[in-house]
Amino acid sequence: MDRSGILAWVKAERLSLADFLDDLDDHEWQRDSLCAGWTVHDVAAHMTLSTRSTFLGTIKGAIRARGNWNRMEAGLARDRAAVFGPAELIAQLRETAGSAHRAPLSSRWDPLVDALVHGQDVARPLGREREMPAEQTVAALEHVLASPFYGARKRLAGTRLVATDREWAAGKGQDEMRGPTGELLLLATGRAAGLAGVCGPGAERIAAVLRVSEPKNVTR
Prior knowledge:
Strand content: 5-15%
Distance between the termini: 22 Å
Order of helices and strands: HHHHHHHHHEEEHH
Mean pLDDT: 92
Radius of gyration: 17 Å
Low-confidence stretches: none
Number of helices: 11
Structural class: mainly alpha
């Protein structure tokens, strides 16, 4: 897919997420998200950062976090959440929904992954449903599986993924894991919440991996 097509997907997901956040009450904004130690407010703040980030700011954040990427992202998100309230963050998300600017070192697919996965990070703990469009989810999943950034290759080693909501499969492992592409995307990015929607011996393998080896804060 060309750059404009991906950006159209990203814009639609960001605007949809803004609408979702606009429907939350004050209590829900303070609830924990799927990212350990992050509130819904923190995740919303994080979602406004990629279109406003700079290389220098990223370097400063990395130094402050002593090279730990998750710690850096958490610090930046919480700093921003402390400055901007829900209405302001929603407005910012809408304002730059169609922006092609992205975080340093990220690919053109990463903003789509962020919008899809972080949408689930805030929706699921609140008991709310947020649809993940099929074509976009498969594209995001394939990017996550190919990228060294997310750790999916190590996390899913020995596992063959088989989608149950469309004709799609990946991996050559002996342990098969079956489930909707949205759940597979969550697991590929380190979210144990995806385990509820999958089955097979591969699911048992991933459950064990997530219990013993995942970092405390999973932001991507």
